[in-house]
Design brief:
177 residues, mainly alpha, globular
Length: 177
């Protein structure tokens, strides 16, 4: 189960990276087409959808690898017992909030599908298609937070803390800047 979950988180990170690369391809293509005097309508819509997809799909992998912005100033000064309790508290609160986000993202996208909501830009497609990345990203982040909560409840250290400590042990402080 652990390998499957880690694979899912990593796959979502790669999919997010794909959308970042796709933004690059679309922007370069747009530049070349403009220089050739050709129309490039709709590329702004595509880039906007790809930006959203890359942001939302990267959240779970980023969280699990400890690259999310976390304020650990309080936790770093607590004893191991109190730190464990606070990790459980914060992960429980995060699971509730992210679960709420995932639920309403799904509901919003379902309503877009149900009412046949169409994009208003130059590229007219059903809005539920680009909104799926929001639903998938929020759902995966919720899964990752619940996964971390289960890890901490079982008495283990959070994956994101271990990942950051391993990077620091290798002398890699690039994510801390």
């Amino acid at each position: 189960m652990r390998q499957t979950l880690n694979w899912i988180y990593r796959a979502s990170g790669y999919l997010a990276a794909f959308f970042v690369f796709a933004i690059f391809v679309v922007m370069i293509g747009q530049t070349i087409l403009r220089e050739l005097g050709m129309r490039t309508g709709g590329t702004d819509d595509i880039v906007a959808w790809f930006c959203a997809a890359s942001a939302f799909l990267a959240m779970a992998d980023t969280f699990k690898r400890g690259d999310f912005v976390r304020v650990g100033l309080l936790l770093e000064h607590l004893s191991s017992t109190w730190r464990h309790r606070f990790e459980i508290l914060t992960l429980s609160i995060a699971a509730l909030f992210v679960g709420y986000l995932a639920f309403w993202a799904g509901r919003f996208t379902y309503e877009s599908w149900q009412f046949n909501d169409m994009a208003n830009g130059l590229i007219v497609i059903p809005m539920w298609i680009p909104q799926l990345s929001f639903v998938l990203g929020a759902g995966l982040l919720c899964l990752a937070v619940i996964d971390e909560l289960c890890i901490v409840l079982s008495g283990q250290r959070p994956t994101y803390v271990v990942a950051v400590e391993e990077r620091h042990a290798r002398g890699d402080f690039s994510e801390d800047m």
